[in-house]
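--- STAGE predict ---
source: upstream dedup step, 1 unique chain passed
mode: sequence only
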Amino acid sequence: MLTDIQLLRLKNTVSHILRVPGNYTGGVLEMAVVADYHLPVDVLREECGQIADMLKKQNEIFRNVRLNLIRWAADEQIQKEVIPMSCLVTGRAFTRETDREAADEETAGVALSKQEGKRLDELFRQLKLFYARAKVILLLTDGSYRIENKAAVREYLQPFLARKLLILQNGEQIAGISLFMELAVQEKDQTEESEDGEKNSGGCL
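--- STAGE serialize ---
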């Protein structure tokens, strides 16, 4: 369950995302919610309900919204559908038989990709490909993913995803732009370490 303070921070962050120049300019709002099925379905149901209820109370634009729900269970199992916001508020979005099956498969770890961890690379690739029109993208996760190619993830975050993405991970908020900058620093450090290693190995025989 999200605390009142976490919901207030989320409210303020979403408002900031919408105010990014060139992002939301009026009309029907399109947004996306990514549910990481490594989280228990009961947790997804409760926290998504809290978020949807808060957003609807925050601003009238969230009462008439095109909402994309993305169920992220594995690299090869990313299911997408458009649902009413009310389905998140009431929890009906997570009462299907397929939700229980996805959760059971994730817990069992029957697929190799699940044993190794889902790739953020593949999720971001699909977000960039299919959700360019979304003005806000929320990812609920426990962090049980891996990044295979940092350069590719940074590429997927540009030009729009980094400005619209907010990751809700273990009670913390990670903005897309913050992730982009963190990966850039890590790549720079790795490059410098590699160059230093090459210099140190170039001594006299």
